Amino acid sequence: MSQPKQLPPFPNSYATKKVADSDAKPCTICYKPATTVLLNDNKMDFFYTCDLHLQDEHFATPLPNEEHAELVKSREELEKNLTDLKTKMDAVKPYIWNNTDTKTSTNDKDDKKDSEKSANKSNNEKFKEYETEIRDKTIKLSETNIKISQFKFKAYKLNQDVYRGRIQNYIKAKMNQARTQKIQSDPTFFPTVPSNKLE
Ligand SMILES: [Zn+2]
Fold first, then answer.
1. d(C-alpha 59, C-alpha 55), whole Å
2. Contacts 24+ apart (CB under 8 A), 16-23
3. Rounded to the nearest whole angstrom, what is the distance from the C-alpha of residue 20 to the centroid of ligand 1?
4. pLDDT digits (tens, 9 = 90+) for 83-105
5. Where do Basic and acidic residues bias regions lie (predicted)?
6. What is the Å distance from ligand 1's center to 169 Cα?
7. Which of 89, 105, 166, 178 is the most buried (most CB within 10 A)?
8. How far is the CA of 30 from the centre of ligand 1 (A)?
9. Domain extent for 19
10. How many CB atoms lie within 10 A of CB 87?
11. What's the CA-to-centroid distance between 176 and ligand 1, angstroms?
12. Measured in angstroms, how far is the CA atom of residue 60 from the centroid of ligand 1?
């Protein structure tokens, strides 16, 4: 058990390559026609996978991607912006919509009238500004969400069991290859059977 751990023949890192529809091959999991090839970083392993399985985290997870991280970051910023803007907009909501105590302060109503009027006006302007800004940012946010959901990752890491399966396949293929070569190059590989016993 104290032996040094043997390094796997290839790393758990695969790049996606697209092939033409006419070159589609069965997905390695579900056998549906697939046009995406996952090619190991050191090119010792590759296989076809459909888009559905590429999105299945029990099969593979995308490796960190800068472009994707930027999109997620801008989504977070937009969401925060929108929350802030909505708070600000609520604070300057036009008088008629948010005031429940219209009947108070009747005494100094006339004195305040002018100043209230101008304050309301600027609040109305602010409200409209926030409204426009919220509309723009909401559009931007939904565009960002679409970009994130349609993002094509360029590199994947396989689920541990899937990766182990790939390595086992590879080792088995290597062993078969070595065996075939041995059979082909060594005439004494099979013991000779007396011909009379074959009949
Ligand atoms: Zn599939």
1. 8
2. 16/54, 16/152, 16/153, 16/154, 16/155, 16/156
3. 17
4. 999 999 999 887 665 555 444 44
5. 106-124
6. 18
7. 166
8. 4
9. 14-63+154-184
10. 10
11. 27
12. 12
